[in-house]
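Supplementary notes for students who missed Thursday's class. We covered one full example, reproduced here. Read the sequence, then the structure, then the short commentary at the end.
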Amino acid sequence: MPELGKKVPKLSGTTGDGSTLALDSLKGQWVVVYFYPKDSTPGCTTEAQGFRDLYPQFRERGAEVIGVSRDSARSHTNFAGKQQLPFPLIADTDETWCKAFDVIHEKVLYGKRYLGVVRSTFLIDRQGKLAQAWLNVKVPGHVQAVLDAIPAQ
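Structure (token representation):
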């Protein structure tokens, strides 16, 4: 994981619409990068809806929101369309973003161990430095806490 106050890695990825988004192209804005396990699952849908519903307030504060999971671009297109998400979703199928932010860890489900994405959010300041990190996120109240961490313009 990048250290607080240090520059985040230069990353780029494919979005649901097939375009490429480079993280450093957003320099000069606050950037919220949130990692979630899987499109169209209950917790991930609730979290995405929270970012969707508060997206105008994020934009008012000069912030962009980016969702990242290991799902395909096609899955992201379906998920974003169904949930009317106004922000990009990165299809991190090769786990480049997940590994750069160290969000893949061992999980246990029904007694089986597997490597999965730990729900996490990172706030990057206008200079491209990590300003805050939320790890092992619980969805209720989280999106508001992220918004509250961004100074009003």
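Commentary. Residues 26-105+118-148 form a domain with the Glutaredoxin fold (CATH 3.40.30.10). The longest strand covers residues 63-69. If anything here is unclear, bring it to office hours.
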